[in-house]
Amino acid sequence: MVKYLKLLLWPFAVLYGAVTSLRNQFYNKGILKSTSFELPVIAVGNLTVGGTGKTPHVEYLIRLLQKYNLATLSRGYKRKTKGFILADATSTAAQLGDEPYQYYQDFPGISVAVSESRVEGVQKLRRLVPDIEVVVLDDAMQHRAIRPSFMIMLTDYNRPFFKDFILPAGLLRESRSGAARADVVVVSKCPQHMSHSEMEKYTSSIRKYTTAAAPVFFSTFRYGAPVSIGAASQLSKSIILLTGIANPAPLKEYLATAGYQVVKVFSFPDHHTYSLQDVAQVKSYLEKHKNQIISIITTSKDAVKLTAGELADATKTLDLFYLPIQVSFLKDAALFDSMVAGHVKDFMTVNSI
User: Average of pLDDT values for 217-231?
Assistant: First the structure.
């Protein structure tokens, strides 16, 4: 059935691909303007719709480059505001979007901004925070109006771009050839024990579309100890999984391998804005199973929304926890770090002359 549906959608995919390819050609030939800046601008992006793990990788870069005066710039997907906003103590997830708000909460030493226009965003950041040395762009691969100095492209191990098709027949935002703009490619969400031969197969498939100079890296997620943001101090073995992310399956699998029993999943769409009704659904389930000791676990991205505003009072009495998550490279982590840090150092040296 899926195969036939893709065939039916193929003409629309061809049309969409032609439009995006023409747009890319206009940028490549200079017909459409692409702006660069005299400071390192590192972009993290992908070719596909949906989650490839950009947020943990941006956080990895923040930790790697923390010795610099750093800023992150995002669109602020599904925020309730428009235009440029520089985060401050009064900012909320609704104003910034969940990921930028998470950056602001977790990394108080950096500047966090949102703007639909990346060019305008960097310009205003430099004006408002003139001592910024490095900007990390979140989800910016298709924003050709800005020319990053270094492009990191992510592709999900479970749905690599080289096996996918252009919207709406597949999930690609543009053709596979867009990978040629990447300085490095990171295959994200890999199994922790990925074999060397499988890495070679992925690398071979990816290099059909990238430049010869772009190395391929493989990363996975490592979860930290559960953090309580509710009434309990210890997570029970029976849990409710509550998420608003693109794909909760890897988290559910991890919990199972870690010895937890997921008795119920409340899975909302990616970037979901939680309501009191959502929390009421969870409480209703708990009430029906009050003879059991059940904790609730969520992601750090969801946690910042579940504990903010009117939801704070509704969730503080729950046995609610979140799992911290960090990126870990399966191999060559030092090489990746040196490439990024070396680019920043070299760029700043050249532009200071």
Answer: 92
- At residue 48, φ and ψ (nearest 5 deg) are -110, 160
Q: What is the pLDDT of residues 173-210, one digit of tens each?
A: 999 999 999 999 999 999 989 999 999 999 999 999 99
Instruction: Dig out the tokens for 214 from the structure.
Output: 């772009």
- Reading the block at residue 277, the tokens are 């009704």
Say how far apart CA 89 and CA 87 lie, in whole Å.
7
Q: Which domains, from first to last, does the chain contain?
A: 2-68+133-222+330-352 (3.40.50), 227-323 (3.40.50.2300)
Cβ contacts of 205 within 8 Å, gap of 6 or more: 160, 162, 163
Rounded Cα–Cα distance for residues 216 and 202 (Å):
9
Whole-Å CA distances, 169 to 18, 21, 128, 177, 205:
14, 16, 43, 17, 21
Residue 124, classed as helix, strand or coil, is helix
CB neighbourhood size of 191 (10 A): 14
pLDDT at 9: 77
β-pairing, 111-114 vs 41-46, is: unpaired
What is the β-pairing status of strands 294-299 and 238-243?
parallel
Q: Is the pLDDT of residue 71 over 90?
A: yes
CB 247 within 8 A of CB 54: no
pTM of the model: 0.92
Per-residue pLDDT of 304-318, as tens digits, reads: 889 888 898 999 999
At 79, is the secondary structure helix, strand, or coil? Answer: coil
Q: Is the pLDDT of residue 2 over 80?
A: no
Q: What is the DSSP string of 305-345?
A: HHTSTTHHHHHTTS-EEEE-EEEEESS-HHHHHHHHHHHHH
